[in-house]
Amino acid sequence: MSRRRRHILDLLITQDDHSVAVHPVDPPLLSDHSFVVADCRCPPQLSTTPTMLRQVRNWHALDVDALDADLQQSELYRTPPVDQETAFSCYDQTLHLILDKQASIVTKQVFSGQSDAWYDGECRTMKRTTRRLERQYHWQRSPDSLNAWRAQFQPQRKLFEPNTHPTGSQPLMHVATTQVCCETQ
Question: Strand order in 34-41's β-sheet?
């Protein structure tokens, strides 16, 4: 704002829940313009991505030793059925009972938002391959599976980087506190 003429050149407009701390304003030197510096603390924006609820098994809670003990105590293990139809039915019931006990079904919120425009089918396939190699490594824990997983990162990076920064610019990181500068008259 002009101290002499009361003209407004620039405005800093925020929402009610954003706090703005204006630093001391120096008096104008060569003209009636002052340089105004302010800190604007903006809360992170909540995702507007649509979500849905999905019933999934809590596989992380599965205790392999307890699963083994439950299987050994089951009717399927102690007295296996003789005919095929009863065997399939007993197998199905036993596994459902044990899994409901060991890895219960939980409700999870799944975000079903759209991908960025650059994340196309080729990127999806590359990411799927990388995840598959990661799972193989975690399952096998062998040097070969580790090397295959690590080798996959280079082509993935080469594919992703030009797509995420098409103009050659670097990615912008969300910063909770930004310094806002404006010149006023």
Answer: 19-22, 34-41, 177-184
